[in-house]
Amino acid sequence: MAINTSKICTFLTGGDVAPDRKSGRNLLGKTAPLFKKADYAFLNLEHNLATSGQLMKGKPTHHRGKPELIEGFLEAGFDALTIANNHMIDFGLESFFDTLALLKAKKIPFTGGGKNIQEAVEPVVLVRNGLKIGLLSYTTTLPQGSAAGPGEPGVNPMRVDTSYTPRRNPIEYPGSEMLVSTKTAPSDLARMKREIAALKKKTDVVLVCNHWGGSMSHVVQDYQGEIGRAAIDAGAAGIFGGHQHVLQGVEFYKGCPIVHCTGNLIFDIVEPFFTAATHQTFLFGGKLSKKGISDPYIIPCRCGIGNAPAILSPRTGDGKKIVRFLSELSKPFGTGLKVKGDKVVLTPGKG
What we know:
CATH architecture: 4-Layer Sandwich
Largest sheet: 9 strands, mixed
Structural class: alpha/beta
CATH topology: Purple Acid Phosphatase, chain A, domain 2
Strand content: 25-35%
Radius of gyration: 19 Å
Helix content: 10-25%
Number of helices: 7
Number of strands: 21
């Protein structure tokens, strides 16, 4: 971890990480030195690292990895991990608690889950280069019984209401397509805003992660923008999303990034619904200061599936395809992408 005396520090994050292999050695591959070089690096740990517990009844999509895989996170020198997602309770509370104990034993700070809602909302606060950074984690993907509450273990919930309205008269046009509307639960949205505002008073910069969006969908749901803008209005410098397994666009609101989805960085479990699109991912970095995030950029990568993720050139092959596709996805938000060296610089749209 690089150290200097200025109150500006570099940061780097990436997609969801769900390893399930024999060893954690070289888990992150050539991306590990990039994370280690950054002054502040964080990721979403997508599942438990434990062998205990039993599979939760009625959970069709489930996975976890062995505790030994923590070695890979230590190699990369992550400053913090987020754990608010839909797989942390796949194998019950015993497996969940063993994962929390492992992270604590290895001195890896985490946020987004705990033995009750008070622990689940507890932020990670670290000082890097004289800059005090706060990190919060929420999830809108909530399997039954996974939400933390007063006296209830689980992950930090952000509930969303969904409604389906026929686009045409179903009497005249049976089976018509539906208009899907989503809206964040007002109480959870208000709670998030209070937590961000309170954390901003104690820190120089606040970052927020949210496990959200539609699985295997490149389309940004209405509630994602609602949450992202509310978080920024409350004082967050940037919002970082995941869960979808595929890329979604990057938008800027009041100059702050809302990264809707970076894809999967490591996902050793190949679900039957995965496609070639789940191989696409990118790292997102920039500089942090009291003013927020500056000089944002991405580095295109290929998802690690049983092996380490690969860094791709943004000028050729699959890396170039990722840049072009992300540019298309981000265009409706007015976000521009321009290749500079081995990175891709992002420019906010006007307004």
